[in-house]
Amino acid sequence: MFNKKNTCSKHQKPAYMNSVIARKPPARPTANHRENTIARFELVKLKCEAIRHGIWFKALSKVERALLDLAVKIVPRVRSFVLATSLADIAQKLIQGMKNRVQRLTHVVGANLALKLSRVAQAWGNKSAREWAVNREFQQYLAITYLNTPTNATGDIV
Known about the structure:
Layout: E1 38-39, H1 40-53, H2 56-59, H3 62-74, E2 77-78, H4 81-98, H5 101-123, H6 136-147, H7 151-154
Helix pairs in contact: 1-3, 1-4, 5-6
């Protein structure tokens, strides 16, 4: 099915986060479309990581899996803007699914709580509280604290 260059190996680094497909394509095609193209090996790496994490079948519908599989089998480099947009949406689903629970909570809950606490502290006169909203370590701390809080005690925190 794939030649040796396109197969996934257990020893490859998970580079799906830094991949071209991890970023959304621009709103419209640009003149320099070469940098916006998606290579086959990037799609193969993403698929291998998704299968390894066990979310290939959980996160994607049958149509989305078929689209990514066909793009890998047929197109050596995705240049179509419409196809690249569809594949970028699929990649975002897979990348979000591959993040662990703490990373997801840090992004969703921790950032929201940090922003709220920062605003309250700024209203009380704390000038350094402005930096709290963008501090990833503080967001992660709040997410882990939220994760360890009993369900009925959280109320309307977020």
